[in-house]
Amino acid sequence: MLLWQFTKFLSNQVSFSRRVRLLAALLPSKYWFRGAVVMSRWHAGIASALGNQNPGLCKAWMLENFLIELSKIGPFPVPLQINDAELLAPLPSDKGGIILCGTHVPFLRMLLRAAILSGHRPELAVGDASILSSKYGMQATGLNDGIPAVSPGPVSLLRIRSILRRNGLVACTLDSFAGGKTHPDLLVLAGHLGARIVTYRTNLEHDGTVTISFSNAIHPYCNSDQAIEENMDAIRKEQERVFAVLEGRVNPSLRKATLATMTVQEIPGKDHRKEPISSTSEKIA
């Protein structure tokens, strides 16, 4: 009863943005990420005590919201492990640029941080209008930086086509919002232009490190209807895996599985299965 009264008071009297500003005022910026993790776990614990059936999912989206608001205040370091970012660089076999492609899952903005810090800045991001900001387009987590961004639609497809024709890199989602229906338009466009599809996986490890992993799609060049459908299916299954783990419907050990365990179509002149996995790490100072 007391917990319910306290939670109701907190939600009524202190807005979420004010709670975030309070956290930022109390802690040096190098501890903001850790503080956000702790606060999100605390909120999830309260939600669970009040009957929320998905505390893991609640924690993930609460942490995402904390990081969005903290990023608006200023830059901060993040314990970040980046795997296989070199896949975002052009290959001799690429004929039409690269599409970094997936669905709306937690840590999308962390994905942009990983791309920027690894030296592979997308020219355009396409995603849910609610996650765009007027200052940075789509702001990268913890950086005073971001990517020009637009909402999904015919205009965005025209801009993507223009970028891919000059062998550029774009970051897109196949769904319009988290949990929304996925659409094949981007994969069809990639197939027409010979663009390569790179997918991603995001995880928050138990030690508080965020892991961002990149992988070529099962069929990197979407050169047939079957290839497009199998790529769509793999991307949908990855989203289902993420939410299944967060909702506690599967063993958390599935976090350790990587997209590289999928059968990847061989790219001419490049055998990823024989290459050592490379990574870069960003640590909290």
Low-confidence stretches: 255-281
Name the beta content range: 15-25%
Biggest sheet features: 8 strands, mixed
| Secondary structural class | alpha/beta
Query: Would you count the extended β strands for me?
Result: 10
List keywords for this structure.
globular; single chain; eight-stranded mixed β-sheet; 10 strands; 8 helices; alpha/beta; 285 residues; two-stranded antiparallel ribbon
Give a brief outline of the structure.
The protein has helices at 2-13, 16-26, 32-49, 55-73, 108-117, 154-165, 185-193, 225-246, and strands at residues 80-83, 98-102, 124-126, 138-139, 146-147, 149-150, 169-173, 196-204, 210-216, 279-282. The protein is built from 8 helices and 10 strands.
Walk me through this protein's architecture:
The chain has eight helices and ten strands. The strands form two sheets. Strands 6-3-7-2-8-9-1-10 form an eight-stranded mixed beta sheet, with helices on both faces. A two-stranded antiparallel ribbon has the order 4-5. It has helices spanning 2-13, 16-26, 32-49, 55-73, 108-117, 154-165, 185-193, 225-246, and strands at 80-83, 98-102, 124-126, 138-139, 146-147, 149-150, 169-173, 196-204, 210-216, 279-282. α2 (16-26) crosses α4 and α6 runs parallel beside α7. The longest helix is centred in the last third of the chain and has 22 residues, at 225-246. The N and C termini lie far apart (41 Å). The protein has 285 residues and is α/β, with parallel strands linked by helices. A hairpin with a 5-residue loop joins β8 and β9.
